[in-house]
Amino acid sequence: MALRRKRRKFGSTMGWTLGWIATALVLFSLADMVGTIILKGVASFRWNMLWTVTSGEAGGLENAILGTFELIIISIILAGPLGVLGGIFTSEFASKPVAKTIRFLTEVLSGVPSIVIGYFGYLLMVLQWGWGFSPIAGGIALTIIMLPYILRNTEASLQQVPLSLREAAWGLGMTRFQAVYKVIWRPAAGGMATGILMAIAIGMGETAPLLYTAGWSSLNPTWQLTHHQLGYLTYIVWTYIDMPYTASHQLAYSAAFVLLVIVLVINIAVRALVTRPSLRR
Amino acid sequence: MRKVSSASKNADRVFRVATGVAASSPVVFLVVIALIVLVQAIPSMKFNGWHFIYGIQWNMGNLYGALEHKNGVTAAAGASYAALPFIVGTLASSIIAILIAIPISMFTALILAYRVRGVLQWILSILVELLAGIPSVVIGLWGIITLAPWVRDNLAVWLSHLGPVVPYLRGPVGTGLGLLSSGLVLAIMIVPIITATTRDLLMQVPILYREGGIGLGMTTWEVVRYICMPFIRDGFVGALALGWGRAMGETMAVLMVSGSAMNLLPHNLYSPISTMAAVIADQLDSALTDASQMAVHALAELALILMVLTLLTNFLARWLVTRTGRRRSTKAGVAA
């Protein structure tokens, strides 16, 4: 008996030890990744990169940063309303089976590989519609990436609003629309904002959907929407690390650094504000 | 009682239609993507036939020579497209990633769900989720400057000692850019997804079941092993399928560390490979330069295969994950 008890205890300790080792491994890869990029980034980042454009083998990041912002603005203008309104419909108006179908298909859309979305954009918008590599094609490709996140977050945060609040609003004689825009959206606003911010972070980090839609340009973007290639940060990381020059590598590190800092700040801020333990459940 | 004015009734109707249109947009996008990719793939299907799936050579032909006509479609002379190396590369790298990710994410999820609580649980969960938020090019960059050299100098050298036992582990270990590195990078990208899903599933296990196990004198680990894991089994498999779909569709990180092999099947764990997603991204120039447009169609067929594969795994995953959730909700009624 004593031997058996010892064996079981040993098994338990072993199991949990493996658990802690796995957790440590995950945290270590995160730390190593963030640490490496930040160290390399700080060592190679120059402030004047922010106001010079990319040229040949090095230069700055101005065009890429502005281009990334332009793409994000276009895609959020499209994906924001679509996602929020879609989420409202799924949560407030749709019958149960319809809501379930929308939810399912939204999940499926978010599972489509981003390169397929990019290539689709190339086939339809760049070639068929003849827009050429352009901000609007890239923006629409990003829209498709972002839409599921915004829609799902909006819907989930609306579902958290208690039914009694709706009943009170309807009891006052409000139509469903009035109930949504005067009452129900208020407690859910934080969740919706979270969805949009997370979608921005995801969109900033995407490369694959843009390769075939936005093209690349070392000039600063203008607001011309079609037939005008534009640069973006992730492209610099991808191409300049492959060049044989130190200056190009430094530019790639700096671009990755800028990108990582923005994305991490958004991520940490959102999660820290929204999922604080005291506010959970 | 005052009647609802017709203006607000109209506003209600307009709003309902507008939200309905917005809610149908994911469906529209999905259908349009599938249709466009399918239609554009048809010339390539006609030109290459089934050879596309089992052939090895991806050859654009002579781009400056005459055009060739075959099966009613036009392509550059000598062109022949076949995707087997990319299909193999996609499957091999994603399976390696899943094999690595299964134990790591399962154990991490157990720790997150049962061993830490309060602020620590919150912080650890955020950190794991942060890993999912890191852009894939940044992970690829890290793969090039840190992971690949480490694989080349340490991991691969060590694994190749096992070569006499397992033929696929035999050297040469190459440059570090290849199948093994791709698998590792993919594992890092899918671990947070699988972990977060599994953690949520584990938290759904009714506390009474676990307490019952403890009451029977089980150790905490035995409770996990014999009560919690069987309870979430379907959901866990679903989470794995979710991660697998993600791994097959991942582009940039793999493209940066895969070694971009063309026309070459991997012969050991360290061979350079290319995945379907990576090759689509990599062949941008060829799509631009082929006057007959056959390269564009061939890439579309590749995208179609990739999309079908990932959609299938996604369907499977969603079905399995929601099934566990439903079982919980019926049983929770007993607990409450």
TrEMBL record, chain A:
One of its GO terms (cellular component) is plasma membrane. The keyword Transmembrane applies. Keywords: Cell membrane, Membrane, Phosphate transport, Transmembrane, Transmembrane helix, Transport. GO terms for molecular function: phosphate transmembrane transporter activity. InterPro entries: MetI-like, MetI-like_sf, Phosphate_PstA, Phosphate_transprt_permease. One of its GO terms (biological process) is phosphate ion transmembrane transport. It is found in: Cell membrane. Residues 65-270 form the ABC transmembrane type-1 domain. Pfam families: BPD_transp_1. The chain crosses the membrane at residues 20-45, 65-90, 102-125, 131-151, 183-204, 251-274. Its main location: membrane. It is a multi-pass membrane protein. Belongs to the binding-protein-dependent transport system permease family. CysTW subfamily. NCBIfam families: 3a0107s02c (TIGR00974). This is Phosphate transport system permease protein PstA.
TrEMBL record, chain B:
One of its GO terms (molecular function) is phosphate transmembrane transporter activity. Keywords: Cell membrane, Membrane, Phosphate transport, Transmembrane, Transmembrane helix, Transport. Pfam families: BPD_transp_1. The chain crosses the membrane at residues 21-42, 86-114, 126-151, 171-194, 235-257, 302-321. It is found in: Cell membrane. The keyword DNA-binding does not apply. InterPro entries: MetI-like (IPR000515), MetI-like_sf (IPR035906), Phosphate_PstC (IPR011864), Phosphate_Transport_Permease (IPR051124). Part of the binding-protein-dependent transport system for phosphate; probably responsible for the translocation of the substrate across the membrane. GO terms for biological process: phosphate ion transport. This is Phosphate transport system permease protein. The keyword Nucleotidyltransferase does not apply. Belongs to the binding-protein-dependent transport system permease family. CysTW subfamily. Its main location: membrane. It is a multi-pass membrane protein. It comes from Alicyclobacillus ferrooxydans. Coiled coil: none annotated. GO terms for cellular component: plasma membrane. Residues 87-317 form the ABC transmembrane type-1 domain.
